[in-house]
Amino acid sequence: MTALTLSTAGAATLRADALVVGVAKGSKGPVLAPGAEAVDTAFDGKLATVLEALGATGAEGEVTKLPAPDGLKVPVVIAAGLGSVPEKDGAYDAEALRRAAGSAARVLAGSKKAGFALPLASAGDAGAIAEGALLGAYAFTAYQGGEDKLAPKGKKNGNGVKPPLGEVALLGGKPRDKAFKAAVERATAVTEEINRARDLINTPPNDLYPESFAAVATAAGKEHGIKVQVLDEKALVKGGFGGLLGVGQGSSHGPRLVKLAYTHPKAEKTLALVGKGITYDSGGISLKPAGHNETMKCDMSGAAAVFAAVVAAARLGLRVNVTGWLALAENMPSGNATRPGDVLRMYSGKTVEVLNTDAEGRLVLADALTRASEEKPDAIVDVATLTGAMVLALGNRTFGIMANDDAFRTSIHEIAEEVGEASWPMPLPADLRKGMDSPTADIANMGERMGGGLVAGLFLQEFVGEGITWAHLDIAGPAFHEGAPYGYTPKGGTGSAVRTLVGLAERTAAGDLG
Questions:
Q1: 147: how many CB neighbours lie within 10 A of its CB?
Q2: Contact 402, 464 (CB under 8 A)
Q3: What is the number of alpha carbons within 13 Å of residue 498 lying toward its C-beta?
Q4: Global pTM?
């Protein structure tokens, strides 16, 4: 993991491989951001002019490298774009700082240490820069760089991937200030858990399946004082978890339901988080077409987010009880697999006619939602890569929020915006429920094609306990990024929704959700 420190060194005296400064997009060209003063002095006051000559504009995501002049102890200066110059108070918003720090950290892969002299006026700024840098420095290299025994002299495999930046030194911070220290410690804990979620999402499905995922959760529970309970196939059969069993019965890797319980002795509220954990989704008998299978190791991103959020809450010692439910199964076609037309009896007692085995996430979530409801939490939030329809509606970078309570949905949307995760409130139109009527069972797992993401939300709502506030996050778009990295977002698993869930836990602990 990349190390992070609040440094008392000045930009001109720091010894490191590189120094990062901020540059904004002004009306007449690039404008240096606060923190770049010493570097500008070393450039005889002409840093902005040099950057403009190199084609830099200060636009968000832009990174410009240039050799450092005499007067600096670093060999390289990196100017990271912050976007437009702030109109009010000259303060850059947290997301601009996160993205600039993340972009710089990505290009610094292979470096041992870099100083970040981005605008840092408050503890909140320090936290944002720390988050961006630590998320941007992420790299998944677990399956690269092994020794090739057939090559001469033990030549290593791999495609030249560089290790992540070794150390981030935040300049301009206050190491002895409690607020600054707390902000950096929080950022470190949360980003480490986000990166753990990314690792899980990126792990190939031959190594990550329900049993092995449960083992990871159990180990983390022991490390952080979280109680973990794992229901294996026998326990699921005994308990009547027909949704989990129906989805998982086509695989040689049996399903699991994992409960993680973080409790605080002074907590007044309890949150239940439920995550879809399909460790590989072939579509089952309703097989996905060619070209749609290759990234389906990411279909457990919801469970990864829930797992990471519970561990982060424990590490932060939040004054709230947080229970995570990981609904884990592998959806495979075989002679034992559930068929279209089969009827499953769910944990709730309701029967579901399976019209499409590729609508399996809602089946495992339904069982977990019912089980979570039995404990009467103050609120339940489920997280899932649930529908392609949500991607069509909101694109690849925004997740949808549905809820049975408008105020709760609004609060989650506000939290997501605050922490830098793009989201949008979505409705649950009652008229779409009729499309799931079944002549055979209580409900079908499919309804109208149009508004499919909303239909899935309506299905889940059927399995939430009466009187319990509930929200559903469909992260199908932003959970797995297939394009080129940008900002602090890598290619592959992103850890989408972790920051929102942690923010929700923090707000609940503070008593701000009523």
A1: 10
A2: no
A3: 30
A4: 0.96
The arrangement of strands across the sheet holding 351-353 comes to 343-345, 351-353, 443-444
Looking at the DSSP bridge assignments, the partners of residue 147 are: 156
Identify each DSSP E strand in 282-397 by its residue range.
Answer: 321-331, 343-345, 351-353, 379-384
pLDDT in tens, 20-53: 999 999 999 999 999 999 999 999 999 999 999 9
Residue 66 has pLDDT above 70, yes or no: yes
Contact 360, 459 (CB under 8 A): no
Q: State the pLDDT at residue 514.
A: 58
| Active-site residue list | 288, 362
Residue 95 amino acid letter: E
Nearest to 308 by CA among 271, 260, 268, 264: 260
Which pair of tokens denotes residue 309? 């959020």
* Main-chain phi, psi angles of 119, to 5 degrees: -55, 125
Rounded to 5 degrees, what are φ and ψ at 82? Answer: -110, 0
- CA distances to 282, 304, 499 from 192, in Å: 30, 13, 11
Distance CA 213, CA 369 (A): 19
